[in-house]
Amino acid sequence: MRCEDSRTLAGVPDGFSRLWTPHRMAYISGDEKPADASSDECPFCAAPQRDDSEGLIVYRGSSCFVLMNLFPYNSGHLLVCPYRHVSDYTELSDDERNELSLMTATAMRVIRRVAGPHGFNLGMNQGDVAGAGIAAHLHQHIVPRWLGDANFLPIIARTKAVPELLEDARSRLSYAWAQEFSAH
Q: Which CATH superfamily is domain 37-182 in?
């Protein structure tokens, strides 16, 4: 390659379209991950100490809470977490396990009503080796899915376009969650 070749210069069009997502460097570099497994460093322990908007909390229960995923796979990606700093599903109390399950089902109903997804991915990654970004604090993922939402960007560019701001999604889901309980 020659230096005068315009395709080698930063900022000069080279025939590729790019979707720049510099905010994701915090996730990639691990800036938001706890330094150790302690509750002092855990973002899931810190979130309930903030107001709902700042903590991205959609709903607070007695032993678990629901919040937006700070690095969502899709718009409306929620997490259900126990308040207690526990890493393994088998360590949950019966009350925590029951509430986590009920909140997961409610989250699916709420997301269906608000966003009309065609399906869901639900899951827990138990341990670093299983892909848990924050292995020290158990969390259940509820990821809404739509036909065609996995286009070439995540496969080729390892980039996900999310069309809604987290606070906008949190507000809509929080309002719908309250409606879910007022209907019963």
A: HIT-like (3.30.428.10)
Beta-bridge mates of residue 122: 142
118 catalytic? Reply is no
Nearest CA among 163, 167, 141 for reference residue 54: 167
**Identified catalytic residue from 137, 139, 141, 184:** 139
CA distance 137 to 126: 9
Tell me the per-residue pLDDT of 93-118, one tens digit each, with 9 for 90 and over. Answer: 999 999 999 999 999 999 999 999 99
Alpha-carbon gap, residue 3 to 10, rounded angstroms: 11
> pLDDT digits over 47-62, tens only?
999 999 999 999 999 9
Q: Pseudo-torsion of CA 171, 173, 177, 180, nearest 10°?
A: 120
Domain ranges of the chain: 37-182
Element of type H or E holding 176: helix 166-182
Residues 6 or more apart from 119 whose CB is under 8 A from it?
144, 145
Sequence-distant contacts of 122-130: CB under 8 A, at least 24 apart: 124/89, 126/87, 126/88, 126/89, 127/87
